[in-house]
Structure formats: C-alpha cells, structure tokens
Amino acid sequence: MIKKLINPAVSEADALKVKISYRLHIFDRASNTKFLINTGVDISLLPKPAGHRFEAQALKLFAANDTRISTYGSLRRVLHLGLWRPIKWEFVDVDVPYAIIGVGPFILL
C-alpha cells in the first residue's frame, strides 16, 4: 500500500500560527500600567481598584455593545510614557478590566 507523504513542517507551521492584534497599547513606566489607546473615546478610564469600596456615581457610561458601565469618581494621574516630559491627565474609575486612554493627552503634546 502506498500512502501520500505528509510534510510535517507544514502541519507544525499551521500549529504555530500567531494571532495578530492591531490594538495599540502604551505603557506607563511609573505605575507599570498598560493602556489601550482608543481614538473613539472622549474620556480615559482606569479599572476600579480591587478591594476598594466605592459608591457608584451618577455618571453612567455605555460600551459599544450598549452595556452599562458604572463610574466611581475620577482622579488625576501623571503618566511617564517615555516622552520628553510626563503627561498629567484626568481618568475616571470604572468597572472595566483594563486601562483605556483616549487620544486627548497626545493631542496636547
């Protein structure tokens, strides 16, 4: 019986396919925080600190899928992004899993 030879290099290459992400992130060296850069938001968001008990504010945000996002106040942070100077920016504490920064701070540079 003759069988067709299967090239193992091809099947290994298929197994090693890397998922490519076109999301843009920037890293704050001072806080070790990775921010997702989002050009479609008007405010910048930080995840609510774990273990802290905050009272939800009246401001409600909505995600693209119409999910309601609770807010818990705001704070001003200094970001060290490796630019020629630190950037001061206002963030809102919200129920999100990761930090999101709008393009606002970069317009001011």
Secondary structure topology:
Layout: H1 8-15, E1 25-28, E2 33-38, E3 44-47, E4 60-62, E5 68-79, E6 87-94, E7 99-102, H2 104-107
Parallel strand pairs: 2-7, 3-6
Antiparallel strand pairs: 1-2, 4-5, 5-6
What does the model show?
Helix content is 11%, strand content 38%. With 109 residues, it is mainly β. A 4-stranded mixed β-sheet has the order 3-6-5-4, with no helix packed on it. A 3-stranded mixed β-sheet has the order 1-2-7, with no helix packed on it.
Question: Can you tag this structure with a few keywords?
Answer:
109 residues, mainly beta, Cathepsin D, subunit A, domain 1, 3-stranded mixed sheet, 11% helix, globular
Principal-axis shape equals globular
CATH superfamily: Acid Proteases
Q: Which strand-content bin applies to the residues?
A: 35-45%
CATH-defined topology: Cathepsin D, subunit A, domain 1
Taken in chain order, the helices and strands follow as: HEEEEEEEH
Q: Oligomerization state of this entry? A: single chain
What is the CATH architecture annotation?
Beta Barrel
Count of distinct structural domains: 1
What is the count of β-strands?
7
Q: Give the termini separation.
A: 71 Å
The chain-level mean pLDDT equals 78
Poorly predicted residue ranges? none
- Which sequence of strands runs across the widest sheet? 3-6-5-4
Summarize the structure.
With 109 residues, the chain is mainly β.
